[in-house]
Amino acid sequence: MATYSTNEFRSGLKIILDGDPYNIVENEFVKPGKGQAFNRVRVRNLKTGRTVEKTFKSGDTVEAADVMDTEMQYVYTDGEFWYLMDPTSFEQLSADKTAMADAAQWLKGQETLLVTLWNGAPLNVQAPQTVILQITQTDPGVRGDTSGGGGKPATLETGAVVRVPLFVQEGEFVKVNTWTGEYISRAKEEG
Fold first, then answer.
1. Are 132 and 187 in contact (CB under 8 A)?
2. How far apart are CA 14 and CA 7, in angstroms?
3. pTM of the model
């Protein structure tokens, strides 16, 4: 298995600590006036999402995580698992609720998702940055509504709720940023 020395640490590097895959978020090299140099590293557990701080002596080595990011297509859900398909090999994998996290609320079907695999199992699923969805329920707009005033909640076809401007009506398509959950703009049509 490949290993990384502390002088190879950088943001985004994936390593194994205590048997779990971690992603290096931040790396700081510290050389005190007295004593041995060390690296203060913030790492995020790819299984749980928790961020912790670890210190490594200069010259220490850690095992590289066999983590792979790949694009897969969302096929369907049975309520407990979400089924994803590799578009080249047509191999299917199932992702549980923890791997799906927030991505599940933006899915209709056939979307291409970025999936982080570890030992062949999905660790994390990321929805496309923007999606176009239809509004299924929102309060009706009244005369004089402008883009400058507040907003109102709107339920989308997937069940997600976002705040939209007052002029947006039920049945319209809107473009939404899935990473922030915010309305971007109206959209002409789906797709």
1. yes
2. 14
3. 0.69
